Task: inverse folding
């Protein structure tokens, strides 16, 4: 069974972020695989170990994205591919078309992606790819099984647990809780160091690069909060909640 | 401005985060239509009080978002909406992405504010797990999802809308996708992202039984009738297996903005703070006076949560 995993290079948001002009300050940033995409890598690797096959990770980005593709190889994927674009402001449709054209060429059985990226928080790319490939997409999965050419998945949405059956090929987006992504092994890291990353040019895929339609006007930091009032007793706290904050 | 609101139900009621979207009617001086999927036509009685012109009722139980896209596409071809809006719930975000893909209009998810200036729409959206906010100019038509509680439920009036009933046109991906079962997760009635008041626990609870102390406080606060109450948790408590991930607040959990957030035994790592910093009032209860949670709290109380929380429960 062939698994394809969409991954994205994002700043590590557990570290401080600063603003420079209309962008985040790139100086001193550490980049990681988008955390939700790691669940996709892990799930594909587990199923390959169980039933055999191949796991390919792919990203659309500039040459710097090779670092996260090497991280994916260190985790255990068989192949990690870069569709190289210089422009950082390309439209979601362009990204999805690039990924779809690649997926068409290689015909995959299962595609995993993160439920959203932490930098854009949209969750749009997998849905667009589903449209372009004319295959179903099931977002937010927390459980994945393959049974007789079908996937049976569970997802937790808005206080409900849903069990969904879907024919493959299909796309699934991964939510926290699906699995616990593995750390790279020493052997994996050595393999990643030696690995060559295949680079594909958008022309080869016949996709025209278009820019994002939505204009970013300004970035801001969230407002600061005034310092806390430290209270000495529960009675005082209740008084403040009732009389000052008027929330209880 | 012509807006279509896509609604959601919870049990046999309309979700509060759906009602919040009706505030856009006044905010953007817009004409509003409404679409929801339900088997039960009674559901729309409540909605008509918020003044929609047309109410599209897609008669189906247990709908998944792909089953509404065919209907929305057809309705939009007739009505040509400037804006389609949903809540930033899982359902809302999924259907927004599908609408963006199949109606070929731009999408912005998890909006927290919107403003109309000279016939242009400006929206505010948190990025990088809520660490940075970005102001966007939205080209119209577009589809937007709004984070629950970022808008206020408007006043009702008595204007009645016209109701149009339709059957679902089936999943846009064909019948290869089937919902086999949907069951309520049980336990909590209100999602942590939608609650007015959230009582949250972290490593300081010491175990799953620690949450019982918080649940007692939640019951008490609920009985005061000041709004809906939910239990939240830090990543430490979720990863330790003390409580389910659906309660997690923060970077890999939910980003919330309740009226009142009570953090019990949560030190306040940045990954947690990004998820709850927008709460109106934050109470921190922690035995470590140096805990970073006190830096962003409105009120702090230093001490043993196992003494303070029961005392609070008793005295409220």
Result:
């Amino acid at each position: 069974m062939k698994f394809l995993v969409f991954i994205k290079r994002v700043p590590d948001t557990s570290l401080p972020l600063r603003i420079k002009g209309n962008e985040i300050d790139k100086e001193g940033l550490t980049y990681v695989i988008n955390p939700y995409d790691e669940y996709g890598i892990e799930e594909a690797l587990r199923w390959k170990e169980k039933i055999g096959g191949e796991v390919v990770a792919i990203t659309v980005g500039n040459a710097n994205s090779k670092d996260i593709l090497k991280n994916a190889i260190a985790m255990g994927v068989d192949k990690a591919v870069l569709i190289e674009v210089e422009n950082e402001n390309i439209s979601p449709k362009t990204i999805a078309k690039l990924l779809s054209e690649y997926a068409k060429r290689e015909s995959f059985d299962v595609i995993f992606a993160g439920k959203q990226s932490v930098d854009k928080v949209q969750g749009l790319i997998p849905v667009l790819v589903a449209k372009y490939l004319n295959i179903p997409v099931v977002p937010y999965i927390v459980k994945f099984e393959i049974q007789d050419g079908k996937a049976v998945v569970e997802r937790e949405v808005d206080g409900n647990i849903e069990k969904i059956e879907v024919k493959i090929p299909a796309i699934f987006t991964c939510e926290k809780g699906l699995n616990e992504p593995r750390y790279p092994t020493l052997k994996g890291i050595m393999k990643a160091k030696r690995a060559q990353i295949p680079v594909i040019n958008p022309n080869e895929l016949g996709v025209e690069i278009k820019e994002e339609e939505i204009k970013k006007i300004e970035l801001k930091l969230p407002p600061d909060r005034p310092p806390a009032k430290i209270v000495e007793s529960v009675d005082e706290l209740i008084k403040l909640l009732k009389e000052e904050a008027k929330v209880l | 401005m012509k807006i279509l609101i896509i609604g959601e139900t919870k049990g046999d009621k309309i979700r509060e985060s759906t009602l919040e979207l009706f505030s856009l009617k006044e905010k953007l001086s817009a004409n509003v239509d409404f679409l929801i999927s339900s088997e039960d036509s009674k559901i729309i009685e409540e909605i008509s009080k918020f003044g929609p012109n047309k109410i599209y009722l897609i008669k189906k139980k247990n709908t998944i978002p792909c089953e509404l896209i065919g209907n929305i596409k057809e309705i939009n071809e007739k009505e040509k909406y400037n804006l389609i809006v949903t809540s930033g719930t899982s359902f809302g975000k999924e259907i927004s992405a599908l609408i963006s893909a199949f109606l070929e209009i731009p999408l912005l998810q998890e909006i927290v504010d919107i403003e109309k200036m000279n016939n242009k729409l400006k929206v505010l959206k948190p990025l990088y797990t809520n660490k940075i906010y970005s102001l966007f100019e939205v080209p119209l038509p577009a589809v937007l999802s709004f984070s629950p509680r970022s808008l206020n439920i408007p006043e009702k009036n008595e204007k009645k809308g016209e109701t149009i009933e339709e059957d679902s046109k089936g999943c846009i991906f064909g019948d290869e996708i089937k919902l086999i079962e949907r069951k309520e997760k049980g336990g909590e009635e209100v999602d942590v992202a939608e609650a007015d008041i959230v009582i949250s626990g972290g490593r300081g609870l010491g175990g799953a039984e620690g949450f019982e102390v918080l649940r007692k406080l939640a019951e008490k606060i609920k009985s005061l009738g000041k709004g809906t109450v939910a239990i939240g948790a830090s990543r430490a408590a979720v990863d330790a297996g003390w409580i389910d991930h659906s309660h997690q607040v923060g970077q890999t959990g939910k980003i919330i903005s309740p009226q009142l957030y009570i953090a019990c035994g949560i030190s306040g790592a940045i990954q947690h703070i990004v998820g709850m910093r927008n709460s109106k009032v934050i109470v921190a209860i922690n035995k470590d006076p140096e805990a970073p949670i006190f830096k962003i709290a409105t009120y702090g109380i230093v001490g043993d949560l196992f003494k303070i929380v029961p005392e609070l429960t008793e005295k409220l």
